[in-house]
Amino acid sequence: MNGRSGGDAPRRGRDRRARVILPRPGRARVSGDAPSTAVVGGGIAGLAAATALAERGVRVTLYERDRTLGGRLAGWPVELADGSPATMSRGFHAFFRQYYNLRGLLRRADPGLGMLTALPDYPLRHSSGLADSFRHVPRTPPWSALGFVALSPTFGARDLLRMNPSAALPLLDVRVPDVYERLDGVSAHEFLASIRFPEAAHHLAFEVFSRSFFADPRTLSAAEMVLMFHIYFLGSSEGLLFDVPGEPFPAALWDPLARRLAALGARVRTATPVECVEPRTHGGYRVATPDGEGEHDTVVLALDTEGLRTVVAGSPELGDARWRERVAGLRTAPPFLVSRLWLDRPVAPDRPGFLGTSGFGSLDNVSVLSGWEGEAARWAARTGGSVVELHAYALPDGCVRDVEEKRLVEQLYRVYPETRDANVVDARHEWRADCPLFPAGGYGERPTVRTPDPGLTVAGDLVRTDLPVALMERAATSGFLAANALLERWGVRGQTLWTVPDRGRSAVLRALAGRARG
Question: Which residues in the chain come in under a pLDDT of 50?
């Protein structure tokens, strides 16, 4: 793909069975007087929608309430206690090779994706001493699953004999939305219990997927967890290794994309929250901000859960009663904590760039940023120290913040004992509770890209797309889908999309799963 042309999304990676989703036929660009679109929200979904629209000649105004773009991947400048400038963010994110549409968005600014660097492994460690790794696991299903079982110390012959193969069959032929019809009514924890998956492997393998949603497995829909298993493991041959930005998010990702939007004529208005969106009797919408009002022909709401609820609640004429009720009922996942520590000495040289953990209290993973992020590496080289980041997901409501922050650092000492002797030059703790929650039974209540009003679309990782996508890739995909829905109104061809295969890869295994469903 030519990253500058606004043409097709990048082709699949190594997976020859990846699925292409073609937009409706149409012209390459709008003709006549260019229509205007307000894109509300400057995260991944909003940036994808704004880019696709602006590339096709639509007059785009992007409204973002914060001072920086990126949404939950934003970054902002801070000054450390030693006087060093640094960039703080909400923490580590993995850019998997299956993220075809997100990568297509990033290619607009860097066709070669030079801003990303590969981490060589995805290790997992349990407090019992058991450890798993995806580095040597084959990438092509079903050999990926068989290889993981053969190489993992968490699987024994006795464990395999105890498993319930008939209960596990839904993993073999995941289809959307069928997986939600079958499994959305039970929790991820209940589903794993029905499989009788080995307890240690349960923690190391499956909780990685469920806690990626910042949710406890007892709350999360089993359908979401099984879909994740399909996307990253049993349905795709891209594997479970991933890339990370080589510099902080603004420098690596969003500043170049903002320049790309500006070159296309889009207006990017940061620090400009939208208070309400009002349909006009003559058509179009009035978009109100603290600085005034603007009129647009169409609107994309690309907001997080609370932002969408707030704007819709303040815009009583949007949609219909049922749609508004569904938006009002959206829930957020429990709070999570990101602690970043600038230490005065290095960690052991063999520590991985990223380590998933289980059994260490609230600690879910550890990243050694100075091992792969340029800014952190330069600080470490200058000071002789290291930069380490800790994540704790799904913390209980009402927990005492300073207690949890101290507890998280104590858990780091258990995982990497050499850090106990390090002095903390500076520490930053980010508490957030703004990720969408996908509870058991909630799929049918989530909004779709299209709304009761054809001039209004919704995008974000909270949106129901009926495609095998999740997390950042769902945000990017929904943003492109929102743009495509509007472009159809003007007879313009939208963005071509790619996803992982939309069904199990083996005909034999699909037949077994189908027999179980019957």
Answer: 1-6, 9
Give the Å distances, CA to CA, from 184 to 187, 436, 440: 7, 16, 5
According to the model, what pLDDT value does residue 14 have?
Answer: 83
Number of domains in the chain: 3
Put simply, whether the predicted model's pTM sits higher than 0.90 gets the answer yes
Give the whole-angstrom CA distance, residue 205 versus residue 132: 8
Q: Kindly state whether residue 127 falls inside one of the protein's structural domains.
A: no
pLDDT for 234 equals 83
Could you tell me which of 206, 205, 18 has the C-alpha nearest to residue 98?
18
Cα angle 35, 495, 179 (rounded to 5 degrees) comes to 120
Residues 452 and 324 in one domain: yes
User: Do residues 198 and 283 both lie within one domain?
Assistant: no
Nearest Cα to Cα of residue 169 among 508, 466, 468, 443: 508
CATH number assigned to the domain comprising residue 64: 3.50.50.60
CB 284 within 8 A of CB 295: yes
Q: What is the DSSP pairing of strand 424-432 with strand 336-343?
A: antiparallel
Q: How far is CA 199 from the centre of its chain?
A: 27
Cα–Cα nearest to 277, from 261, 266, 253, 293: 293
| Residue 7 near residue 56 (C-beta atoms within 8 A) | no
pLDDT for position 156? 63
The runs of H, that is alpha helices, within 163-304 are 165-168, 178-183, 188-195, 199-201, 207-211, 222-229, 249, 255-263
Four-residue CA torsion sign, 212, 214, 218, 222: negative
CA distance 174 to 417: 41
pLDDT at 355: 94
State the DSSP H helix or E strand holding residue 473, giving kind and residue range, or none if neither.
Answer: helix 471-489
Q: Does one domain contain both 452 and 382? A: no
Tell the residue number behind the tokens 């209960």, with chain if given.
167
Taking alpha carbons only, the member of 240, 315, 237 closest to residue 280 is 315
pLDDT at 207: 60
| 130 found inside a domain | no
pLDDT of residue 12: 63
- Inter-CA distances, 212 with 131, 285, 356, 398, 436, Å: 19, 36, 11, 22, 11
Q: In this structure, which amino acid lies at residue 4?
A: R
Whole-angstrom distance, CA of residue 196 vs CA of residue 165: 9
Tell me the two tokens of residue 22: 């073609």
Q: Is residue 261 part of a domain?
A: yes
Q: Could you tell me the residue range of the domain that residue 183 belongs to?
A: 137-240
Over the stretch 287-301, which tens digit does the pLDDT of each residue have? 999 999 999 999 999
Q: What confidence tens digit (pLDDT) does each residue in 67-87 have?
A: 999 999 999 999 999 999 999
Does residue 3 form part of some domain?
no
Question: What b/e sequence results for 106-122 when a residue is b if at least 16 CB atoms lie within 10 Å of its CB, and e otherwise?
Answer: bbbbbeeeebbbebeeb
The residue from 432, 465, 487 where one domain ends is 432
Residues 174 and 301 in one domain: no
